[in-house]
Amino acid sequence: MTTTATTTAAPVLTGLGHDQIRAVLPHRWPMLLLDRVTRVEPGVKGTATKNVAGTELWFQGHFPNEAVLPGIVIIESLAQLAGVVFALAGASEISYLAGVRSMRFRRPVVPGDQLVLSAERTAGGRGFAEYKVSARVDGQIAAEGNLTIADPKGVKNG
Question: Is the pLDDT of residue 7 over 70?
Answer without folding.
Answer: no
